[in-house]
Amino acid sequence: MKNIIVLLAVTFITSFAVQAQSRFKIAEPYVTFFAGTPLEDIDANSDKLVGVLDVEKKSFAFRIAMNTFQFKRELMQEHFNENYLETDKYPNSEFRGIIKGDFDISKVGEYAVTAEGKFSIHNIEKEYSVPAVINVTKDTVSINAVFPIQLKDHDIKIPTIVLMKIAEKADVTVKAKLVAL
Fold first, then answer.
1. Could you tell me which of 13, 64, 171, 178 has the fewest CB atoms within 10 Å of its CB?
2. For the chain, what is the HEC assignment?
């Protein structure tokens, strides 16, 4: 009987450890976007991305508070939050979905994958398919992705008076390390 209890305890602990290693959270995130034109650079960055990747299920969920983006000029930040993204009304952007493609967190390598799912910004949800790279080294696991967002697809309106200064699409770059939960 004592051996059975020890066996069950070891099985439980082992399965818990394996399960814990299959879930990762975002660490050291860096998110940027660029929506500039030849007349003006419109770019900002944030290090406030949060999220989880479940390796076993190949699922993910990421969120960022839109008012955490920092601009070079204070007036740009004010316009971004008040006029374009209306961050008081629509505070977060979210991307939830699944990872398509093979990757192995336990093996060193660079894995080209695709993140497919629902991306919501400015309270408008749209299906996205984003090429990404999962990079596994002996010390770290990281993700990198670059993708465009058409502003009109998310009902982000650009006033005619500044149309020549702000692009119709924003190029988003996401870089982050992953740490086991």
1. 13
2. CHHHHHHHHHHHHHHHHHHHHCEEEEEEEEEEEECCECCECCEEEECCCEEEEECCCCEEEEEEEHHHCEECCHHHHHHHHHHHCCCCCCCEEEEEEEEECCCCCCCCEEEEEEEEEEEEECCEEEEEEEEEEEEECCCCEEEEEEEEEEHHHHCCCCCHHHCCCCCCEEEEEEEEEEEEC
Domains and CATH numbers, the chain: 22-180 (2.40.128.110)
